[in-house]
Specification:
The complex is a heterodimer of chains A (464) and B (245).
Chain A: H1 4-13, H2 19-36, H3 50-67, E1 69-71, E2 76-78, H4 82-93, E3 98-101, E4 108-111, E5 122-124, H5 137-145, H6 173-192, H7 209-213, E6 227-229, E7 237-238, H8 240-252, E8 255-257, E9 261-264, H9 271-288, E10 298-299, E11 302-305, H10 313-329, E12 333-337, H11 347-361, E13 367-369, H12 384-397, H13 402-421, H14 431-434, E14 435-436, E15 441-442, H15 444-459
Parallel strand pairs in A: 1-7, 5-13, 6-8, 9-11, 10-12, 12-13
Antiparallel strand pairs in A: 1-2, 3-4, 14-15
Helix pairs in contact in A: 2-3, 2-9, 3-9, 3-10, 5-6, 9-10, 10-11, 11-12, 11-13, 11-15
Chain B: H1 4-11, H2 24-39, H3 43-55, H4 60-80, H5 86-103, H6 110-113, E1 116-122, H7 130-142, E2 144-148, H8 155-164, E3 169-173, H9 181-192, E4 200-204, H10 210-216, E5 220-221, H11 225-235
Parallel strand pairs in B: 1-2, 1-3, 3-4, 4-5
Classes of the chains: A alpha/beta (464), B alpha/beta (245).
Chain lengths: 464, 245
């Protein structure tokens, strides 16, 4: 492994480069690697083979060896040798195959999976960036936490827009104030539903090391319930704050949120380039990230297109490629995000989520998360019922053979892709419109939409 | 200042060039070569076509508008069709800038030809600039004079720069939620300093939306770099078709 001090040293002594030139180097190297290794995107086969996954991994190793990681603050390249990169992967493969989240009766174990394993999936609820008024924050969090399959959250369950009239301003006290308010109200909601030790994960609103540090207190964010997000930047970039956050996490024994991702359609031209760049980013982050952490890392090799959508064929393929390359060659406990373009209370949201769940589970994901609607944006545009749907669908497709999963995925995508092409994605409704606010339960009409969607999915072969 | 055509005549020898100028066939041939070279990102070929155009006496404004800019439009179309990606947009911008550098001595005074002045920055705390740089390139190529301030820029510095260069537009970029409030800070400074009416303010980036722009009182928002050109033209009163919101 590469000590953090060595990372800083390389950040200060590596080759100087302009960021634009680094972006071009990443873009063209990813294309070269895809050509060299003959990695082909196939819209008719969205869950990839082991052979393709291994090609993606090899291409990523070669790419990272060549381009390195860019430090945005020092404007220098952190270089790796091929042997170092392979050792990073080997260490992870040989490392722990499980990761425990939560504590006492709220403890869950995330376990390394292969695509056709019938092993357990862990479901993390909520849509962290969806904001909610402060007087509704606790009921909103309770509506997720009360779900039987909710093993915790992939980050603070919702966002507050302000505290004391102050928005969360980066680097100012309100960044910390809002994050603390979210943490305290989340903990109170968990106490009220009888799950006080449930996993929360990272804060999203606090991104600076100073603000994150204010959350790390006894009874607040601790090793059993909290995580520090590196907020790692896409396409092989870091800065001093990322390294500082990694240092804080290591010292406190707190899990680090590793989230390599790449955006299809900008620097990365196509799905294959996106997958290769994602895995190169994963390897780069593992180099400095969770090196002192023995129970992880949780991983999130993810992709999205230039409009933020996850559910197109190209992005589904890229996710499958990255996830399988990671689980086979890096041994990370991969998470699968499941956000829909469509709004809550629509069948399309269910169809998109089913596709995302299926591609993740059939590519070796160990945990499902982020059952958000409208890509998680806006006020209260996701609900506990969407999380329940994610969990039920994951359970239903566990153990499915890859050929069968591929065939089913084609049918599911066909249910919604015309809406995306024709820009007729339904906006849906908010939590406040879809739930009985006294009982904190989904209204009958909302449940009926989900039941109808499940019937249609069952009719094409999804075995609920 | 003198008319561009006169500049061309002077540049290539004045009296050697007839008043009638080159034939339309010759013009079309050169411009087609230039367009193709820009679209294919071939800088040497593009520069050669530009020089050939000047040598045969094509109006440099026409070379710019019907050659270089036309090529860029086609690059934009290919980006929309997902045939081209960010690197091609960037390289297309580089090729075009090289062509414009050759043409500039023969063009009317740039102060008069520019269509507006923009100060662009990623607000304090925000280090994301991939999309922002793309927007800057497209604005420049559309004829705006853009003062790019980079990332993590304090609100007051942005305003001081806008005053200094007498900007028409302040462009603000933010990617992460906790830096978006700095849009509001810039707008509040402008209001409290009595400058709100002096500058149009456009926002963009990551999780921003048109609704967001409206809620904070910004003058516009764009989902991507091509839409940003249309929105910028619109807010300064230039007629444009199909502004996407």
């Amino acid at each position: 492994m590469i000590p953090l001090s060595e990372f800083q040293y390389r950040s200060l002594t590596g080759p100087v480069m302009k960021e634009d030139d680094f972006n071009l180097a990443v873009a063209f190297k990813s294309r070269d690697m895809v050509k060299k290794h003959k990695i082909k995107y196939d819209p008719e086969c969205l869950i990839i083979s082991d052979e393709t996954a291994d090609l993606v991994f090899e291409a990523a190793v070669e790419m990272l060896t060549d381009v390195g990681v860019f430090n945005k603050d020092s404007h220098r390249i952190i270089k790796f040798t091929r042997e170092e990169i392979l050792q990073i992967a080997r260490d992870r493969v040989d490392g722990a195959t499980t990761s425990t989240i939560g504590r006492n009766s709220d403890e869950f174990v995330i376990t390394r999976r292969t695509p056709e394993d019938t092993g357990p999936l862990v479901n993390l609820y909520a849509a962290s960036v969806s904001d909610v008024p402060d007087d509704m924050y606790i009921p909103y969090v309770k509506s997720f936490a009360q779900e039987e399959t909710c093993a915790g959250f992939a980050g603070m369950p919702a966002s507050l827009t302000s505290v004391h009239g102050l928005a969360p301003k980066s680097g100012a006290p309100s960044e910390s104030m809002v994050a603390l308010a979210e943490l305290r109200m989340t903990l109170e909601a968990l106490r009220q539903v009888g799950k006080p030790d449930l996993w929360i994960g990272p804060t999203w609103v606090a991104a600076t090391p100073g603000a994150v540090s204010t959350l790390l207190y006894p009874g607040g964010m601790e090793a059993h319930n909290g995580q520090i997000a590196m907020h790692s930047m896409p396409e092989l970039k870091i800065d001093w704050d990322r390294l500082m956050l990694s240092q804080i996490a290591s010292e406190r024994g707190i899990k680090q949120w590793i989230s390599p991702s790449a955006c299809q359609g900008l620097i990365c031209s196509g799905p294959a380039e996106t997958a290769v760049t994602t895995i190169a980013s994963l390897l780069g982050q593992l180099g400095y990230g969770p090196q002192d952490f023995t129970q992880g890392p949780l991983g999130l090799s993810s992709a999205y297109d230039r409009f933020g959508s996850n559910s197109s064929r190209k992005v589904l393929w890229a996710m499958s490629a990255a996830k399988l390359a990671a689980t086979r060659n890096v041994g990370s406990l991969e998470g699968q995000p499941t956000p829909s373009d469509a709004g809550a209370g629509t069948e399309m949201a269910c169809f998109e989520r089913a596709a995302l769940v299926l591609v993740g589970v059939a590519s070796g994901a160990s945990w499902l998360f982020y059952p958000a609607c409208r890509m998680g944006l806006g006020t209260a545009h996701t609900t506990g019922l969407e999380g329940r749907f994610m969990a039920e669908t994951g359970q239903a497709v566990l153990g499915m053979k890859r050929d069968e999963a591929n065939s089913l995925l084609q049918k599911i995508v066909a249910l919604y892709e015309d809406n995306k092409k024709n820009m007729t994605v339904p906006e849906g409704q908010t939590f406040f419109e879809l739930y009985d606010m006294d009982k904190l339960q989904p209204l009958p009409d909302y449940v009926a939409v989900h039941e109808s969607a499940k019937e249609k999915l069952a009719a094409i072969g999804l075995p609920y | 200042m003198f008319p561009a055509a006169t500049a061309v005549r002077m540049k290539i020898g004045g009296s050697d060039v007839t008043e009638a100028g080159p034939s339309e066939d010759a013009v079309a041939q050169v411009l087609d070569r230039l367009i193709e070279a820009v679209v294919e990102l071939e800088e040497d070929n593009a520069l050669e076509a530009v020089q050939d155009g000047l040598d045969i006496g094509i109006d440099p404004v026409r070379i710019l508008q019907e050659g270089v800019m036309k090529g860029l439009e086609k690059i934009g179309a290919r980006f929309e069709e997902e045939e081209y990606f960010l690197p091609e947009l960037y390289l297309g911008g580089q090729v075009s800038k090289a062509c414009i550098a050759v043409l500039t001595p023969y063009l009317p005074d740039p102060v008069d030809s520019r269509i507006g002045v923009i100060v662009m920055a990623a607000v304090k705390g925000d280090l994301h600039d991939i999309g922002m740089n793309l927007v800057i390139t497209q604005w420049q190529l559309a004829g705006f004079e853009v003062h790019a301030m980079g990332t993590d820029v304090p609100s007051m510095s942005i305003i001081e720069k806008a005053k200094e260069v007498n900007a028409d537009i302040i462009g603000l970029s933010a990617f992460i939620n906790s830096t978006i409030p700095n849009f509001v800070e810039v707008l509040a400074y402008l209001r409290d300093m009595g400058l709100r009416d002096r500058f149009k303010v456009l926002i963009g980036g990551g999780s921003t939306t048109q609704a967001h722009a409206e809620s904070i009182g910004a003058d516009g928002w764009a989902r991507d770099c091509l839409a940003a050109v249309k929105v910028a033209k619109k807010v300064i009163g230039l007629e444009v078709a199909g502004v996407e919101q």
